[in-house]
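Input record (Table S2, row 347):
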Amino acid sequence: MLTVNAIAATSATAPLTKTTIERRDLGANDVLIEVKYSGVCHSDIHTVREDWGPVTYPQVVGHEIVGIVAEVGSDVSRHRVGDRVGVGCMVNSCRECENCLAGEEQYCLKGNIGTYAAVDRDGTITQGGYSTHVVVTEDFVLRVPEAIPFEKAAPLLCAGITTYSPLKHWNAGPGKKVAVVGMGGLGHMAVKLAVALGAEVTVLSQSLSKQDDGLAFGAEHYYATSDRETFTALRGTFDLIINTVSASIDINAYLSLLRLDGTLVNVGAPSEPLPVRAFSLIGARRSFAGSNIGGIRQTQEMLDFCAEHNIAPETELISADYINDAYERVLASDVRYRFVIDIATLV
Ligand code: NAP
Ligand code: ZN
Ligand code: ZN
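Output record (zinc ion complex):
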């Protein structure tokens, strides 16, 4: 066992605090990663505050992890000591169900093993990336291309793949009109990736306060959803809408913005329901869909795509001590556009 420094939640209401946790001894297929940077996803906040259900405390979250391989198990062939690597939202799956065999481990029929707050093979609760080291089985460790600045790479492991996957699945590309609802961590990556895929991108944000940024990320249009006129002007416009909002919104209003056969994909994961009226769908053969992160193969494809297209998240590097302030700022939609913990401040 390796005792390592970490930042943990001790209850749904207490501030996160520094602590130590144990990492398992290296198995034959395991990789020990010295974590360098760890992104702060809104899912981390949903989890520690028990928005999605009960949590066993203390709980370390963080599933946007990049670091350097420090040690490898005897049978490891995919990674070497010194490699730049990443770990996203899952650390294992059954590997034999039809979804795993199709490379869609996130939809493992036995349930993928989440990077944190999940029951691991050995019965322990998984602990995430707000820590100095992680031990992960090699097949769930990604290569981070040199072309991506390391301190910016971490958010790709969740925000990047979670938006890339539905954009690819629903064929965002030339000739397609794509809207992104909410321009936070996921939303700003959805904009950059949809632009790089060749789509015509519109941002639908609560206000126009981030308009200059959205246009700089390559969006052609930017509208405030607080202005009801937006919903009249854009009725029947989009082929694809990616909703990244962390709270419950009026989905029917957004469905009305889809053209014939358009799809609204929900990646935002509020704890409250999102009620849909039948007539919002049947009037234009519309679809309301969801999407969960992305498989390991596609996550590598996304990292390579970002390297090739010079795409990186906009990040604000923070010290470990700032984590509770960062959470409050995420909750207030005051993030430009992802907080990343400099793990050097945790040692
Ligand atoms: P985030 O950085 O907080 O961004 C969410 C954005 O939604 C905010 O920046 C804001 O954008 C908008 N927003 C927030 N509250 C709102 C409200 N009450 N009404 C309207 N708009 C609001 O969060 P994130 O890290 O991108 O995560 C977003 C959601 O995706 C979370 O629920 C998270 O758990 C979920 N998620 C899902 C997956 C998946 O696999 N499906 C993966 C990762 C995260 P504007 O200021 O532009 O309006
Ligand atoms: Zn996440
Ligand atoms: Zn499986």
